[in-house]
Predict the 3D structure of the following.
Amino acid sequence: MLDAASYFEQVKQALPGDAEARAQALHKAEALGLPTRRLEHWHYTDLARLLKKPAQENAALVATDFSALNPSQVRFEGGVMQASDDAGLADWPALSPTAAEHASDAMVLYNQALAQAGVVLELPEGGQKTLLVTTQGSAPQHLSHHISLARGAELILIDDNMASGYSNVAWDIELAEDSKLTFVHLQQAGRQVATSTVRLAENATLTRLNLLSGQDMARHAGTIALQAAGARAELHSAILGTDAAHNDVTYVIDHQAADTQSNTTSYHALAGQARGVFQGKVIVQRDAQRVDALMQARAMMLSDGPEMDAKPELEIYADDVQCAHGTAIGEIDADALFFLRARGLDEATARQFLITGFIEQVLDACDHEPLVASLRAHIETKIATVLGQGSAS
Amino acid sequence: MSSLLEINNLQASVGDKPILKGLSLSIQPGEVHAIMGPNGSGKSTLSYVLSGKDGYDIGGGSMHLDGQDLADMEPEERAIAGMFLAFQYPLEIPGVTNMTFLKASLNAVRRGRGEDEIDAAQFLRLAREKARALGVDDEMLKRPLNVGFSGGEKKRNEILQMAVLEPRLAILDETDSGLDIDALKTVAEGVNALRAPERGLLLITHYQRLLDFVKPDVVHVMANGRIVKSGGPELALELEASGYADYIDEAVHA
């Protein structure tokens, strides 16, 4: 990845679509260079420096059981689709020649230059689906996914990342009137930059749950555009950061229309020398009255080593709105710990309870019981695996 | 040493500030004791020191439960030995359901006591039965522990934990505070149901009110870090009439 140009030379024969447009995107990306702290949106994640660090070993991966949801499945390895049992997916598109002209984010441009596969799903009016996307392997991956939901369609999309290498993933998502997307993102390994763009039409609902627990690096940036009344975004992230993990969740939530809602939370539990980042910017445009926007970043520091950077922002141009944001960073509550121990739980178990409880608040916004049960099991196994190894104490 | 709880000349401080200044108390199996006293007399400190909370220096004296020296035991070891503290301000624990917590707690205590763990189905029956008696419905059992519970719900939930864990000695720290009369009656009924020949209860309270519903065998007045007077239930009524002023002066000038 570091030498994208020679990588491009290597793989360009195999890349589908418009080679010239790809070359342009690459040229533009190279001119911008890898993001550094000088860019406001990358202030706490110096990607150019982080990618030079040796890859981190990952704790045992936890396979998550989604069988109760009976999903269609697609699997990627090394940036290539390996298997799919979903006949409803469309062909992966050739790159649109105009796309690169509008992109100003180097990572999106690299993705446009180098992506060779992705999910293309157009769910028709009233359609319902559950899709599980898994990534595996250690080779670099560039994936570009395109999802669109027609009026009233409902999709549960689970993006389960277990690939150990570098990946650059882009999601472009369009939600039509009354459609509903539940988008779960699990990352347990690897160094990943994921950039998503979601546009919501009238009464469309996005529920996004990020569960990040890798020991290397994750940067999850999302731009959410609430374009018509009744559109609602629930954006919730839980991060279990141990060792030298670097996890960055960055959102821009753009309330373009009146009567739109967003609720954004993040729960970082950090140990070792881990670093956690949350950036969230709520924008309320001039005519977007009666917007309801909440943003809350919380962090639980499990030892003296970790660092948390939280930067919630509000940019409000309308006058009749309800917006609030807050940040709380603390340790495990000593009184709560005593309460649990006074009921017979040993200290390690009591701590694990409090950490699990803290993290599982990420599921509060999800009302799909089988999904919640799967994710709860994932969280509990992951915490027991990672903290059981003593890296948290 | 046949007492259930035996406290002898106990001294405890927080930093440089002495709070318990030579407190002695002994509770026999089956007895209900009440400790009354003004704010700042050390009542809550006593409950925390007995249950093993960090932050208190034990300067002298001793405390034994069933002949076991509590001083060097962790809070969870004391719970396993049969100590239970109903908290004045029960903690809210988001993300952990009441049911999950109760089961983990019961099994931790059972393991510690060398008993078999209880399975999920047995536990559900047990918890529902005990909960019903306290007016704790299924919805409350499924909710995160104490999160969004009213004051009365939190206190009933404490008594539910006590009913499930079946302690040897239960300390109820101002369990009556913040309860309206109906909630107080429900809690008192729950407490009375747990009176048993082998169990001891220590009620820490400010007011006579709770003692109208849970009749104590012995009433103690605590002031300035020690027990300054002990007597029968009539002592509580006397205090209600005349207040604590006499005892505060007595303790300070002693």
